[in-house]
Amino acid sequence: MRIITTEQFMESNRNISQTAAKELDNSVQDIISQVMQNGDEALYKFTEVFDRVQLDQLTVSKKEFDEARNQVTSDFLSALKQAKVNITSFHQAQKEQSWFTNEKSGVTLGQKVTPLESVGVYVPGGKAAYPSTVLMNVIPAQLAGVEKISIATPPQANGTINPHILVAAAEMGVDVVYKLGGAQAIAAFAYGTQTVEKVVKIVGPGNAFVARAKKWVFGDVAIDMIAGPSEICVVADETAPPSYVAADLLSQAEHDEEARAICITTSEKIANAIHDEVEKQAAKLDRKDIIQKSLDQHGTIIITENLVETFKLVNQIAPEHLQLMIENPLEKVAYVKNAGAIFLGNYSPEPLGDYFAGPNHTLPTSGTAAFASPLGVYDFVKKSSIIHYSQNALQDAAPHIVTLANTEGLTAHANSIQIRKDDSNA
């Protein structure tokens, strides 16, 4: 990891190229087009090309679900069940109800909350399997009242789905799992094929192909967000154990080579200690090759002058995960304007949120925490406004509406009101 100042960090960010990945977009759009035209035939073809697997069918069979249960440990199942309890409890508080008001005589206004009809959940595969993603995406959808939930996830080399993902799906009552990855899975969800049923919304993280595919199908179908590489920002002072900070930075660097691990501190002594700990711990980890590439490209320790500068920088970065490993962290939360999830203290590491605490781990990345929120129950409902006026109530409002409509030159709008007013006065 490099140790730099705030000024150096900002300068390096200004030098990052913003050129669009045209080649990637061309590939993704071609995949989408072929899935739209050829349906299942394209899905089988792309699975063979990208996953190097020849499938007999695109859906997971009941036999495969049953066999998966025998391939996981009781410890995993126990942990999964407890995580489910915690995640469900947290998201219960996000449920919204329809509401109505009658503040004026003859006037009823309100909002009707309706669950989406169908959702497709993308669960990444490849470098790792993520049963936690099943829980984090399915639980809020179910609490919202979504009836049709299906999952797409890439097959393993032998044509099966990772058993931990299948057990998580079964635990959630999701029995439609497609052996599909990449942009082709997103296209199948968006437009439907002979096997894959079209959905209203697509959620879940994925690689660059998945992210760009979600961008291109948006509008024909809803999406949760366009997620970039995982990222963590740890704010540390002299009270933070360097070994803890290093371990947390590495927990994100192991996701993939593009993951960003950033530490901000006002102490040069702490910065050097964290740097040394990162090198020592990284050498012992299973995914050290991925970690090293991530750290070489994006690993950064930034030394700031004071906490004011620190939190200004935090809000500019708008990190996906923010850890405040500082004295009295709860008192400093007010200074944070932009962050996907905020972890307070030395004993609230980011993996706690990834798996177990309860808040959702599907979070805005790449600075989008400046305007976006974590995935929640609210992402799986739509809202309709309710308006009811009695004849007398409309009579009272009519002159104002006619005036506003005529001001905008929309005389047919004015006539729609006037004709009722005239009829009432007849």
TrEMBL record:
CDD domains: Histidinol_dh
Signal peptide bounds: none
Oxidoreductase keyword on record: yes
Name of the gene: hisD
Keywords tagged on the record: Amino-acid biosynthesis, Histidine biosynthesis, Metal-binding, NAD, Oxidoreductase, Zinc
Enzyme Commission code: 1.1.1.23
The record's free-text note on cofactor binding: Binds 1 zinc ion per subunit.
Name this protein carries in UniProt: Histidinol dehydrogenase
Organism: Virgibacillus byunsanensis
